[in-house]
Structure prediction request, 296 residues.
Amino acid sequence: MTTREGQQLMKRTRMLRERLDQGTVLAAGVYNALFARIAEQTGFQAVYVTGFGTAARYGYPDVGLVTQTEMVENLRYICAATSLPVVADADTGYGGVINARRTVSEYERIGVAGLHMEDQVFPKKCGFMEGKQVVEREEAVSKVKAAVDARSDPDFLLIARTDALAVNGWDDTVARAEAYLEAGADMVFVDGIRTRDDLEVYSKRLAGRGLPCLYNGALVSPTDARALGFRLQIMAGLALGAVYASANEAMKALRDTGTTREVIERYQIPGDVGLNEALGLSGYYELERRYAATAG
Prediction:
C-alpha cells in the first residue's frame, strides 16, 4: 500500500487531529489546487486555504467580497487535488448564526478537515488591514455554538478566530478566546500578531497556559512555536506573495525586452517538466497505457 493510499483510508479530520497530537503542525498557505499539490509534494503535513488568497484568485482584495459559494468552489478543487488535511478560512461564516451552520456543513461535505471563523463585523477585512470592527462577544459565542451543533464529524476542527486585539486590546481578546473555547471551539486564533512581543503575550496569556491555539505568521519556527505552546501554525500568504513577485518580474521583463529568457535563466525554470509533474501528468499517462492495453 502506498503512503497516499494509506492516507486515504483515514479520514482527513482524524489525520489532522493525530498530527496535532504529535507536535505543532505547520500548514502551508495555498490558494488553489496546484499549490496544494506542491505543498504535498514538498512534504507539508497540512495545507491552509487563505481567504485573502482566494479573494485574490478572483481579483478582489480581502474585504468581504468573496461569497461562501465561491470559497466552497475553490475548496472543492483543492480537497480533490491533495490527500493532506485542509484547514480553511471561513471568514465570518458568511452571515449570521444560521449561515455559520450551513458553512460548517458545506465545508465538511467537500472534505475540509477544519475551519476558522472570526468575530468581525460583516463585511470583514483581512486581519492585518485597518478599520476592523468586532461584534459583541455574546453574538460571537452564539455563532461558535451554532458551528459546534452543525458539525457531524466530531473530529472536524472548529477554530474560533478573534480580531479583537487591534480593536479592544489584550484583555478583551483573552476574554473572548476563553469564552469561545467554553462554547465548544477546539482551538482559538488571535489574528493581527505583528511583533515578537505580541507573540510572547499571546503565549503567556493563552497558548502557554495549555489552551489550544493557532499562530498565523513566521516570526518563529514551528519548533519555537511549539515551545511557546502553539498547536498549529499557518503561513497564509507565502505562496501567493512569491507568485505575485515572480510573475510581476517576469511580465515586466517581457514588456521591456520582448523575451522571458532572462527570467527563465534566473529562476532556472526547466520547461514544463516540473509543472506537469506537480499536476500529476505521469499518472494520466499510466492510465492511458492501462486502458489502451485492455481496449479491443
Remarks:
- Confidence is low (pLDDT under 50) at residues 1-7.
- The chain has 15 helices and eight strands.
- Residues 238-257 form the longest helix (20 residues).
